[in-house]
Amino acid sequence: LVHLANPIPISSQVPRGKEHSPASQEPDLSRVNCDPRHTTRIMISKLANNYEDLQSSLSSIKIHRDVIDDVIAQMLTSSSYDEIIDLSKRAAISRVDIHALLGDYKEMIGAIERAIEDVAEENQAEEQTHYESMMASIDGASSLPLRELALASLILKQEKKYDVALDTATTRASMLARFTAKPSVDPPSDAPSGVPLSTPAPTGAPVAPSQNPLASSSDTQPPATHNTESKPPDDVASTSQRPLLVLPPIKLETFDGSDLTLWPAFKYQLDQLILNRSDLNEVERAFYVRSSLKGTALNLVHSIPTKENFLAKIIHRLEHEYDRRGLTQAKLLQSLLSVRSKSSRLEDQLVAVRAMINIAYSIDKDSGVDGLITQQMIAEHIHKRHIKLIWSKRPKTMMLALELIEDDLRSELELATVVDAFSSPFNPHSHASTSVASGSVSKSKSEASACDTCTASPQTSLSGPPCAFCGTHAYTGKCTQSFSIKEKKEILTRKSLCHSCFSNQHKTNDCVKCCSYCSGKHHTSLCDKPITQSTEDVATQSEVRLTVAEDLTNSSHVATTVHFNTVVQPTQSDTRLFTVAVALTNPRAHTATKAHVLLDHGSQLSLISRDLVNRLELTPIYQSELYLSGFGSSPDVAIYDIVQLDVMTNHGPHRIEAVVKEGDSILPPIHTHSLSKSDLQVAKDIIAFVPYHFTETVAINTDLLIGIGDTLALLDKSKSTKLPSGYRLIVSSIGALVVG
């Protein structure tokens, strides 16, 4: 602490300029304040050296920023690619150094913050105030902000400016090269007729540099005259007239280490685009290698600095972890054997075989997949009818076998499309529908209810006209293509078809058919209203069955019958189901989202919507051939994806397996009303947070239906409280539910 006799500022006591200094005189002691209680305190921080280091780091950053600014200014006036390449090298070195200094700067700030915490309590507040004042200031020497975020933002703006300047300079150099390029053939001269334009050089004589290169390219070329049009060869002319195109920059693919099979292709990319480039120094190559890594692969080499002589250590660390050829080939074979066609439709078979071809490109020849037995096994995964094709053709490799199946499927699909294009969908004498399904499942006539007979007639379910929406099967009411209700109505209107029975013989208002859900003048598949049903109908609602075929290849297979409850929304009933919003995560990609879940005690399997699968970026762990019925669709045999996901509970993640069901939701919207005030008061006394659907009337779209096994596990040790209205408040590991 410095005690000053005069409380006025120091600058006013001691003027620094000589022009302000009067003649030397004795100080005026009459103004001296001798009272020690009125003193001025000047803060001398114990962390002064740390702040000096910050300012020194900012000065270094300023030097590199000036280099980049100079490069930007020179780029805008450069006229050749060589100049741009030299300038970009200088800028690349400065950009790498700036990022390294910025990392050191961040560590310095962290050290200062930790040092302030270790200061004595009586001085800690002053040190914190001084630190905040410093961070809010601008360094006078470098004119850069001391706050880290502001400094990083300034650096980012300069990098964007550099990128724009580089693109502009490259485009400008390309345009200048096009305008200044000299033609390879000189224009014809006004020489007299019969005089050659160029005299051939004698045999063995050197050609002068100024000679036309085309004149000496062939000794047998006849001399051009004034009356003869001189034309260069086609290949030379096309080369001289071809514009110089500026190719877009190559974007490096990233590698996160989650899929070992992607390492060989990624390593080849590193070798060709980064490691083998002589114009990059070792630090630049190390920087580019690290910038192409993320996830676990980046964490593997995160502690290795990007300095000289450290590039080999980074590559060795990555190769030691991921360059395992035997395991990579095993995973590729496992992926190849797990691919199956989702259904017997030609489109699904084509998707499956193309996925197999993509995997087969990475499998080595000595892996043993080229055998005839393995080829037939893979062909059966697409469709068993391809076994005969493989047996008759006997291709030498797996790739040839897959390409053979692909060509066969493509030909069938093209033929089916042509036949369908020239076939009238309403001609009773036309041949059967060109269905792309190679095997259809017969439908029972007793499927539809009395009012749901608007699906044409039972006799036309399989042999009648093709679907009015997609034309790929013979049952319009059960179309499985991804058409919205609005799109279906537009198609029917455009084709002048009845919206209730899809006939072209009468109008919709004249049709006697109706919707079985709302009794409206439209088909049940076009109903966009919630499914309503009387309370009596709910009590007598028949169960819907889900049958899983264990072995569909045998004629007398034994199927496992799986039951799940049909969810309907009564008109008068106030029934509340086991619905709750929970957090769901992808155990592989570490993505998360929140979705509505229905706990179903009557279901033996869990179902998940395709929309939720896409949101979580889930990938199938295997596929299973299932016989599904219910949810307003006809029974059909198809291959379904099986995925794994985690349900977040109070005790940690709970992993479940679910069957992927196409669509945005599993069930129609479930309507729930708000609880009474007395129920809400009891709920607030028991749980800290009251969900919004307890206080509002909402329509819940179910994204995940959890079967009985996982339902019992999630509701284990839950507490139940009876509410005044008679409902039950269940506090479980995944949240609070009101049921009853």
Automatic annotation (TrEMBL):
Biased composition (Polar residues): 209-227
Transmembrane segments: none
InterPro entries: DUF1759 (IPR005312)
Any Pfam family the entry gives: DUF1759
Name of protein: Peptidase aspartic putative domain-containing protein
Residue span of region Disordered: 1-34, 181-242
